[in-house]
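Annual report, structural modelling task.

Input specification for the iron/sulfur cluster complex:
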Amino acid sequence: MPTTMFDRIWDSHVVADLGEGWSLLYLDRILVHDLSGGRAMAEIAEAGHRVAEPSKVFATPDHAVSSAPGRTAETFAKGGKLLASLRARCAAEGVRMFDLGQRGNGIVHVMGPEMGIVLPGVTLACGDSHTCTNGGVGAMAFGIGASELTHALATQTIPQRRPGTFRIRFEGARPDGVTAKDMILAAIGRFGAAAGTGMAMEYAGGAVRAMSLEERLTLCNLSIEMGAKVGMVAPDDTTFEYLAGRDFAPKGALWDAALADWRKLPSDADARFTRDEVIDMASIAPQITWGTSPEQVSAVTGHVPRLEDAPDAGRRQAWEAALRYMGLEPGQPLVGTKVDWVFIGSCTNARISDLRAAAAVLKGRKRAGHVTAWVVPGSEQVKAEAEAEGLHRQFLDAGFEWREPGCALCVAANGEAVPPGARCVSTSNRNFVGRQGTGARTHLASPAMAAAAALAGSIVDVRSF
Amino acid sequence: MAMQAFTSVTGPATPLMMANVDTDVIIPIQRLVGTGREGLGPHAFERLRYLPDGSDNPDFVANREPYRGSPIMLAAENFGCGSSREGAVWALMGMGVRCVIAPSFGDIFFANCFQNGLLPVRLPIEEIRRIAEETEAGPGNARTTVDLARQVVITPTGREIPFGVDTRKKDAMLNGLDDIAMTLKRADAIAAWKAQDRATRAWAWESVA
Ligand code: SF4
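The model returned the following structure:
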C-alpha cells in the first residue's frame, strides 16, 4: 500500500498499540530548554524516576537569557535561576548541555539541526510548540507540554494519537523577493490558523525541492501557526549535504547505513493525504501580517481589510479587535505605515542565510533615525559564522544592534520587550497580543522585508527598495 | 503528576466566545518565569481581565456575575492555540475553570488539559451558542453540567448533548491516573523495542552514544 513519509516514521516507532488510534511511540531525541527543562527533570526526580536515556537528551538555554552584548547568566536574574536549575539537573542526570557562549548553544530549534542532533526519520519531542521546525530535515518532530515532557524524559516514549496528514505542494518558479517565510505566511493566510489543527504537514512540490535546507526549516517552523503538530519536507541530497560532517551526525559506515535508510523515507508518489492542496508560486508576493493572528496577513502591496469584507460575524469581530490593538485603520495601505522597531531573530529566521539576506538589503545605508533595530543570531555558530563573514559590521554600520543568541524579542521572556504601543516588524512567528511585550504591535515578515523597514522607517515592499 | 480527578462540574457557562484564543493571552510568558504552578490564577487572561490601573475590566465576561469563578467556560474555534506552555492550563484551573467547551482546541493545549484534570469538550459552534443563549436567557441561576462518566453536557434547559472522549483519557481523568506509572508497566515492551531497533538502526544510537 502506498504510504506517506509521516506514516512510515510513525509505524517504525510504535512500541505498543494503546487502542483507539493511540500508540506508545519511541523518541529518538529529546531537546530541552531553560523554561521547562530544569523543572521537568526536578519533577521526575521528586517522583523517584531518572532520565531514561540521557545520551538522547540535549539541553540549551535560550528563552530566558539576556541578549545584551556581553551578557552572563545573571544579566536577567529570573532567567538565571532557571538556567542554574537546568545546569544542576543536566549534571545530575548526565544530560549534555550547551551552555551560554559554547558551540551548540542557541535557540533549541536552530541548534538541533545545526549540530546534527536531528536527523531524517528520527522522532523528536521538545517542550516547545515550534519543534515542528525540525521536520525540515525530514524528522518527525513535535512539541509537547510540561507534563508530557516529564513522561518523555522518564520513559523515552510518548503516547500519541495518530494525526491526519495534510500536504501542500508549492509549484512553479519562485517570484522575485519571495522567501520561504512569504510562502508559509501566504499558506496560513489562505487556509487559516486552524486549518491543520493536530495534523502532520508535508511540504512538497518543485519550489520546495529547490529550497535550501535552512529555508525548509523556516517553512516547517510556522506549521504550528496553522495548528499542525508536525511539519515535514522529504529528505534529499540537499538534506544530506547539509548534515554531512555535523557534530552529532553519523560518520563513516554509520553514515552510509543511515543514508540507505533515509533514501527510503519520502512518501510514495501515489500516497494519499487526508488533505492535499496546491499553491501556485506565481500567486505569492512578499507578505506582512496586519493583525494579531498569523492568518491576518496580506501581500505587502495590499491594504488592511475593510470590516465589511469579513466572511462572517466572528471574523469581523476578530478583525475589529485586531485593528484596534494594532492601531490601524480599515482599508489603509500597508506600505508607508510607520515602524518603531525591527527585530531580526527567532527560530524562524535567525540562521546564517537569513542574516545574509537581511544584510544584502542594507547596501551601506543606515536605519531611519527613529527606528530601534536588533539582530539576534539564532545560535553561537550562526553568530561566529556571521562575524567571520563580517555581516555584524554591516549591521552595526547601518545602526542595528548586534546581540547575543537566544529567543529574545520573539517571546519577551528574558526581560527585553518592545515598548507598549510601539510597532515592530519582526522575523519571528507570532503576532499575538502582547507577544513581544505588553501593548507591542507586531508585523511578521521575512528578514529582507524587516531590514528594508528599518532603513525606510516604515513598511516597504522590499522589491521596490 | 498533579492530575486532579474529574467526574462532573456544574456552573453558569462563561461565554468567552472568541476564536483563536492563544495561550499567550491565557497566560503571558513573563508570569511563567519565576512564578510557580500555584499562584497563576490571578494572572489568567490578565491582558483582557484587568484595566491598566489594575482594576477589573467590566468588559471581560469572566469578571461579570454570575460567571465569576465558574468552572465551565465556552469558547469559539481553536481555543488554546499557539505556545505549548502548560501554564495556560494551570492558570485556567487557578481561576477555577475545570472544563472548556469549544468547537476545536490547540493540539498541545488539548493534551495538556488531560494531564492536569481540566476537561476539554468539543461541541459544534451552534450547540455552544445555544448553551450561551440558554444561560443568558435563563434566570441568574441557569446552570450547565458536564458529566464525564456519562459523556454528556446538560444545558440550562435540561437538554443533554453527548460528547466524545478517548477511553484511555477518560479513565485517566476519572481516576486521576499518572501516565508515567502506566507506561512504566510496559518496561518489557520498551526494552524489547529498543534491542530490536539498536540492531537495525545503529546510526540513530551510535552517533550520540
Ligand atoms: S525563538 Fe520564539 S518561537 Fe522560537 S523557540 Fe524561541 S520563543 Fe519559541
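The first helix of chain A runs from residue 5 to 11.
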